[in-house]
Amino acid sequence: MTLTEFLTLAISLVSVIIAVTSLIRTRGIAAEQLKLEAITAKLAERQLSQIEEEAHDRTQAKLHVDLTKLGKNWKFLIANRGEGSAFNLRLELIDCADSPLSQSEVSEKFPYPELKTQSRIKLIAGIHMQSPRTYQVRLTWEDSRDVEHVEDFHVAL
């Protein structure tokens, strides 16, 4: 084997080693790139679901209960301060032996079919000297997706 052939063979071997090294590194980088793409896809899914959830939350009903004296009478005021409607609204006084609400009025108005945004319901409260100073009110309603919500409120005279 002549010197020229030996140099040609050595240069060929060096170029094969460089090519194999490049191929191994490229495969490693490609595998890492695929992992990053999968992570990016998961992140995009989470962001999309979070955006959809935030949009849904902005259209939710935000109910509030207050016990207010209007003129000479006390009234329970149930207000929807949110951007969405509350459907099939139900009211319950919790741990209240002496309910100040008229059962006929409650059974007539509830379940309330739809409490729209920025609207309210007034219920006459028969408050007397021995009435408790605080009441716990439980509201149960459904949103536009038919998901049931339950929230308890503490109201005071």
UniProtKB/TrEMBL annotation:
Name under which the protein is recorded: Uncharacterized protein
Coiled-coil blocks: 34-61
Keywords on record: Coiled coil, Membrane, Transmembrane, Transmembrane helix
Residue stretches spanning the membrane: 6-24
